[in-house]
Amino acid sequence: MEILAQAEYSQLAGTIVSGLSLGTIYALLAMGFVIIFKATQVVNFAHGALATVGAFITAGVAVELNFPGRFLDLPPLLGWSISVVTALALSALVGILLERVFLRPMVGEDLFSVAIVTLGMNVILMTIVTDYIGPDPRSMADPWGDAAADLGFVIIAHTEIAQFLVAAALVLLVGVFFRSRTGVAMRATAFDQEAARAQGINVGVIFAIAWAIGAVLATVGGIFGSVYPRRIGVFPDTAFLVFRAFPAIILGGLDSVVGAVVGGLAVGVAEAAAGSYLNHPLFGTGFSGIVPYLVMMIVLFIRPYGIFGTEEVRRV
Amino acid sequence: MRGRPHLYTSYSADQALMPTATKKVALATFLVLAVLAPIASSIPFYPDFLGNNDWMKLLSHVAIFGIGALGINLLTGVAGQVSLGHAFFMGLGAYVGVVFGAPPGDLWGLGLPMWIWLPMAGIIPAAIGLLVGPAAVRVRGLYLAFATLGLVFIGEWAWRNLKFITGGSFAGRRFPEFQLRMWKEEEPLVDFASDGVWLGFEISEEAKVYLLMLGLLVVATVLAKNLQRTRAGRAFQAIRDRDIAAEIMGVNEFKYKLMAFGISSAYAGVAGALFASFVGRQIPETWDLFLSVEFIAIILIGGAGTVSGALMGSAFVILLPRLVQDFTEWLSNVIADGEGLLATVADVVLSVSPDDFGVVNVLPGAGPGLSVFQLNQVLFGLLVILFMIFEPLGLYGIWLRIRNYWKGWPFTY
Q1: Residue B47: inside a domain, yes or no?
Q2: In chain A, N or C terminus with fewer CB closer than 10 Å?
Q3: How far is A22 from chain B (nearest CA, A)?
């Protein structure tokens, strides 16, 4: 009976659900990356470190500090949400600080030099956070645990439902933000920093806001990457999630927020599909992990600037 | 042209490898000192510790990474194509080397002598580099960095799964030893893998390997330096400075980018094979993204686009951990046997016992604070950032400033 019941679940639907949930994580990470890139002209190789640090801070606030649980007796979801919001504020601060300390002196340098600075940041942050996490993963203490909803043909974990809702809300928020006054200022800065300054826009503040948004999105991605069904807590290798989100960024184009979302979802589904269908021994172990890169290379070969990216106009 | 070091009357004089007598003397002195390092203890006024087996190993490591750095320098520094794929080509070179060089057994191996496997470790990665090159040439700027980053991850997957070549994730495999034979099973003509007597001196295995690496590094350096003076070298630089302008001037962008890719991959392959054999046993995870980042850091710290920068950078990046380790050991000794200001300061920085707080801990095993290895990682990242912010020309730039200061001394310009 057990086996019969198992067979009723559709493998396709399961693949799509897990692919989309992976894809929303990629989309969140890619979106933060693209916002930072567009607004501040920084290719942030430390985005993975930001996600890991953010998730680690969340674990610290929710478990070690037990905030706000040590003061108030709240229902788990509300209490956890408050911890997460606190952690998000802290990681936004980390993002702002990183930009202010390491990247502000590099304003106006070429993209490559700045990218190398972020590579250095990545090494530093990852080393420190790895040391603090230690060998045991830190639990997120999320209120959902491993509960799942059975829809008859597919099982969706509660975390995945939460993740879809949160991601949709964040995408919507970012969309609304770009229509606000500050958002327009950010778009102006992305277009031309000097002209934006001439219009009275405080470019420094815009940089800080962009990094705060990027860090928050990275943290949310990091949190959902560290809960059931993916992980049991923050590992240092949460950062590799972001390395797999890079293909999503390339797929969508380095400078397109819409592209980041579409690319993220596409790469997530492709990876999940490879995981459940391409299991011939010829593919070896861990093939699904490199599917994003294969997709990226094929896309780069056909459209070297991504699907939604602007083609670079080259002048002498 | 005596006394007029900057007056050139012909193109060949302008392009000379060593334009001034000072340079010739300095280089010759340096080379003699480098060759004499293994017998340091029997030469007066020569720092003894350089002859230790420890330091011989470190210097061999520097030489191997120097060869690899010359390769990435050619591609990224000279031709301006940012590649994070160096680790992939190093791994490829190492595994080509082991397939040709290792004795047949459970894992693939042809057991061919070193004069075959070492060149093959350069030739085959170069060929593969030329194969993936056309795709890479289409992609420019940061997109290329991302594409080559993908190459590293795909490579790691391949190395993990090609167990019959690489030995798999946990075991890894042994790499061929440095022994020069005529053919497969003969007695080695020159054996770098055991202690022996050369020219009346006791030369240890480590010192022999060091001399071999030094020789290979000199060859690689001369080739790299010469390449920069050829038509191809100038074409690389033109592409780096402005690719469209270069094309308008008649530089075939596709051809020269491909060439840069191929040559750089050959350097990477040889360096990878040497490194694998030098360490002895390697697992597939050796060839990861961090290795690529390390090489990018080497040429940036040294000074991108310059041969001497690549060598200075690799010496700096490889020797730094050792210096940091010696320094922390010295500090913990200061704490152990001393009062005084230094001991107090050092005590804050180091934690020497489990209940002692400090930023860095020197205890064996995990404890509070960073381990010395982690401290090195942090310093490495910090140095990369600081060099990018304060001295984009790297060590080479610092050297230029020192040289120019003394050139004009006592005037400031």
Answers
A1: yes
A2: N
A3: 19
What residues in B contact A254, CB-CB < 8 Å?
A: 142-143
Higher-pLDDT residue of B220 and B47 is B220
CB of A71 less than 8 A from some CB of B = no
Strands A155-157 and A148-150: antiparallel
Residues 6+ apart with CB under 8 A from A166: A220, A224
How high is the pLDDT of residue A2?
Answer: 45
Element (H, E) at B261: helix B253-279
Q: Does A151 touch chain B (CB under 8 A)?
A: no
Q: Is the dihedral of CA B347, B349, B351, B357 positive or negative?
A: positive
DSSP-derived pairing of the beta strands B350-351 and B281-282:
unpaired
Average pLDDT over residues A256-263: 90
Quick check: A5 pLDDT over 60?
no
Say how far apart CA A135 and CA B161 lie, in whole Å: 26
The pLDDT value given to residue B2: 56
The confidence score (pLDDT) of residue A316 equals 64
Taking contacts as CB-CB distances below 8 angstroms, the residues of chain B near A298 are none
Q: What is the pLDDT at residue A228? A: 81
pLDDT of residue B367: 57
Closest CA to B281 of B159, B167, B112: B167
Structure tokens at B368: 């509070």
Does the pLDDT at position B265 exceed 50?
yes
Instruction: Report yes or no on B371 lying in a domain.
Output: no
Which of the listed ranges A269-278, B6-15, B65-74, B94-103 does the model predict with the highest average pLDDT? B65-74
As a whole number of angstroms, the distance between CA B282 and CA B305 comes to 30
Which comes out higher in pLDDT, residue B295 or A241?
A: B295
- Confidence check: pLDDT of A4 > 50: no
- B359 domain-assigned: no
A278 touches chain B (CB under 8 A): no
Taking an 8 Å cut-off on Cβ atoms, the answer to whether B385 and A314 are in contact is no
B177–chain A Cβ distance below 8 A for any pair:
no
B149 CB neighbours in chain A (<8 A) are: 243, 246, 293
Q: Chain B partners of A310 at a C-beta cutoff of 8 Å?
A: none
Which domain range does residue B237 map to?
35-288
Q: How many domains does chain B have?
A: 1
Q: Where are the domains of chain A?
A: 2-238
In a domain, B347, yes or no: no
The CA distance from A312 to the nearest CA of chain B, in Å, is 10
pLDDT grade for A105, boundaries at 50, 70 and 90: very high
Taking CA atoms, what residue in B is nearest to A98? B385
